[in-house]
Amino acid sequence: MIGREVIELVAPESRSIAAESIRLGREEIFEHRLLRQDGSSFYGEARARYARVGGRSLRMTALRDITDHNLPTFSGAEALDLIRDIGLNIPTLCVTGSADPAKITEVLNARACALISKDNLTPLCAAVTSALNRSAPLSNPPGRSGAADDAIQ
User: Residue 125 and residue 131: Cα distance in Å, rounded?
Assistant: First the structure.
């Protein structure tokens, strides 16, 4: 993104905060909403540094997606328990950054179809396909007609 104004990558609701930080020359890390290429927004972290290059003062900004830092404060196993407790019979996969064997065992024991490491997402497509092939056909929740399912077929 060299040469682009960082403010172009900031979601409208966060632009005033980002513009103020730029104006004041702040270099600390701060969080705000950023934009993806498709226009959707996500929580991001910005870290800026000023540098002199060839007699010019440049502001360099690193942006990082921190969406998963703002997820609900419960574990994957608790999410799986919640899905089971409300009676949903759906295939569920977990993507994790944890390498803790106890947490991995807890999630798998909570009936996740698969546990995929964030460090290696290569098996994700195969795991989704496998989970869908093993799952029972989904029934419509009460009050739903099934028209969407009929339209797909």
Answer: 10
Are 54 and 89 in the same domain? no
Residue 105's CATH number: 3.40.50.2300
Backbone angles phi, psi at 121, to 5 degrees: -90, 5
Q: Domain of 12?
A: 6-69
Q: What single DSSP character describes residue 61?
A: E
Helix (H) or strand (E) holding 51: strand 41-53
- Residue 109 in domain: yes
The two beta strands, 93-96 and 114-117, are parallel
53 plus 78 within the same structural domain = no
pLDDT digits (tens, 9 = 90+) for 6-63: 889 899 999 998 999 889 988 888 888 999 888 888 888 888 888 888 888 888 888 8
Mean pLDDT of the chain: 78
